[in-house]
Amino acid sequence: MAGERFCRFYVPGDGTERFGVFGRSGGEERVEEVSGGPFGPFERTGLSFALGDVRFLPPVKPGSVYCVGRNYAEHASELGNSVPQEPLVFLKPVTSLIGSGEAIRLPLWAGRIDYEGELAVIIGRRCRNLREDEALDAVLGYICFNDVTARELQRKDGQWTRAKGFDTFAPIGPWVLLGGSMEGLGDLVTRVNGVEVQRGCFADMVFPVGRIISYISSFATLMPGDVIATGTPAGVGPLRPGDRVEVFVEGIGCLSNPCEGC
Asked: Which residues form the Rv2993c-like N-terminal domain (predicted)?
């Protein structure tokens, strides 16, 4: 249902995976359980939980996680890179996905590990060879994403699989804002330990969301639940054990993850 904020979660001590939507009761923010998944109709069951009583899971189980590099000109410049002529697409393994609240594990041997706050798109139906003007019709919704990156390994390897692919290097959540329209979405803001470090306007993307989806669908069949992260604005920087990193988009919510060394 367009406009709903949809999640997947469990209650500690129970462990049962549940679906829910954002709600309020008596002024308190809550997760309202629903029957049915995000790709079809669902109904509220009448059960609800305080946000602090649940643990969020990635809202979908994608087959593929696509990411786009250098999609903000200022970010490309801050790392000494040029802006690409077409979307620069790479993959992260699905094993890198974690939900909001789960710890990002920083491999201490790998050098500098950066946050990269991003807006991501969840695909809602199987599709291939979409035109740009029809691409948003295939969108299930929008979600906050953190493309955590081992920066020194990225430079060393020349290709990005290892630097981007560690377990826990793709926090996503907590909610999917259902619907293909981006109207009502505010700026992307990343904070580390409560201090703002990134702010990006989606109008500043080199390649807009529709163009990105169309481009990827020209070479790959997109499936329901697939994730497409749309790039990070300027301001990337290192994470350290004990940090908490938050990616916030007005209209969606706040993805929050602590960091620990490993």
From this structure: 5-59
> What burial letters (b/e) apply to 176-187, b meaning 16+ CB within 10 Å?
bbbbbebeeeee
- How many other C-beta atoms lie within 10 A of the C-beta of residue 97? 23
pLDDT tens digit sequence for 20-53: 999 987 789 999 999 988 998 999 999 999 999 9
User: What is d(CA 163, CA 169) in angstroms, rounded to the nearest whole number?
Assistant: 9
According to CATH, the superfamily of the domain at 65-261 is Fumarylacetoacetase-like, C-terminal domain (3.90.850.10)
pLDDT band with cut points at 50, 70 and 90 for residue 2? confident
Q: Which of 4, 3, 39, 32 is nearest to 18 (CA)?
A: 32
Rounded Cα gap, residues 124 and 106, in angstroms: 32
Q: Which two tokens stand for residue 195?
A: 């201090």
Percent of the chain with pLDDT over 90: 88
Give, in words, the CATH class of 5-56.
Answer: mainly beta
Q: Which long-range contacts (CB under 8 A, 24 or more apart) does 156-160 make?
A: 160/69, 160/90
